[in-house]
Amino acid sequence: MKDEYDVIVVGAGPAGSLAAKEAAKGGLSVLLIEKRQEIGDPVRCAEAVGHSTASKYLDFDEKSICTEITTATLILPNGLEFVLGSEGPEIYKGYVLDRKIFDRELANDAAKAGAEVRVKTAATGLIIENGQVCGVKVRHLGKEKEIRCKIVIGADGVESKVGKWAGLDTTLKLEDIESCVQYLVSGVSIKESDIRINIGNEVAPGGYLWEFPKGNNKANIGIGLLGSRVKNGARPIDCLNKFIEEKYPDAKILEMHFGADPVSSYMEKYYGNGFMLAGDAARMVDPITGGGIETAIVAGALAGQRAVEAVEANDFSEKFLKEYQKRWEKEYKNTFKRSLILKNFALGLTDEIANQYATEFKKQNIKEPIGFDSLIKALTKMDKTLLLKLGISLIKS
Amino acid sequence: MIVLAVKVNRYKCGYCGGCVAVCKETAIDLVEAFIEIDDEKCTSCRKCERFCPVGALEVIS
Ligand SMILES: Cc1cc2nc3c(=O)[nH]c(=O)nc-3n(C[C@H](O)[C@H](O)[C@H](O)COP(=O)(O)OP(=O)(O)OC[C@H]3O[C@@H](n4cnc5c(N)ncnc54)[C@H](O)[C@@H]3O)c2cc1C
Predict the structure, then answer these.
(1) Fewer CB atoms near the end CB (10 Å): N or C, chain B?
(2) Residue of chain A minimizing CA distance to B58
(3) For residue A396, is pLDDT > 70?
(4) So what's the architecture of B5-60 in CATH?
């Protein structure tokens, strides 16, 4: 580790590795630090991702892909199922990844582009001078060190501290975070091209329970409950155990994963003098799906690119870095706006009403797979309050 | 005065970092595979206790 770099990236998840890769590709000296001793491990993710915009910035490598997904099945409290997917001629394409491999490969890509990667190295604070972030305090094997840089990219995930150290309030309220447990199980027969999402206040209050295929009769079965709806005795682990005992009594648990997923929608501001936040650190998770891999990848890449431009311009002011936020929001602002409305709508639904809508909708005999947009459209026909909320947001945007 | 503190059951904790994310006081730190709580900063607001997916945190007096 040197005493000075152009850019220090904190956290080697998808956001951090992409940021480091783009910055290094642009010719900057980059240090990527990760506090874990093994990148990607333990997993804190259900590992599903769409082919999507992320593929602009990386190749989904075969080694990282467990299964290819074409549909998602939504399971209502009364057992009615709806298959979601593409209606058009083009088939939807997504993957269930192996993030232990995926994350490590992304860090390797950053290293190959010229970034210095250091594991078991935690950021413990920032160096701030005259309101300008200009370095990171790190700890490696018990030794503390101060390293200076022009820009810090905080990609330190859900437990992010970089933003806090720099003066932003990144604390998540209990109603803005999902409390999660997942098992990687074997010995389950599950369709390999479909992810299953169970909703309802019985099965997963304020969240959902997922069954994602990993190939070879393996699956990620997990649950997320809204923090404010977690109760003693009915914590995520209790609800998940109940489901598995009932539905997959013969499943063998190979791994246990615990996680926290922000569903607040992205922060109002996630940059400042000398720093940018990317991925979960800036709460860039789709509030209705809980998905944050794609958005983290895009954010990391955009932050890395802006860092290159900042060094070229020799300008590390927040005014200059603001453009990064603009670019990310150009991609995701409208989607997130809609997702936030849908999330709040879903949180207000009782199981009875959800069942009633499902029954009504099934009667219409609409061809499946149904597109997500068609589903929302059908919902707005049954629920005028949703129509109103979505309508207002469209006018406002 | 009753002094409250958060106790971590290290044998239960799955080190997900959720407690760190909900702590307004920055009193919690996830150090790789264990969490550390700074009793000086902790206000016993119980948010971490509420959030924990496995119930590894407990506010005790
Ligand atoms: C249970 C669960 C299921 C999920 N399922 C999906 C899904 O199916 N699809 C999807 O798209 N998204 C899913 N998500 C969300 C997704 O996992 C995240 O949005 C994504 O990992 C964000 O990437 P990131 O790079 O921002 O952060 P992370 O991948 O969390 O990486 C952050 C890294 O920073 C490191 N770090 C933290 N602090 C420091 C420090 N001080 N110093 C050094 N390093 C530090 C951490 O150790 C970590 O490695 C899920 C989340 C959870 C909890």
Answers:
(1) N
(2) A232
(3) no
(4) 2-Layer Sandwich (3.30)
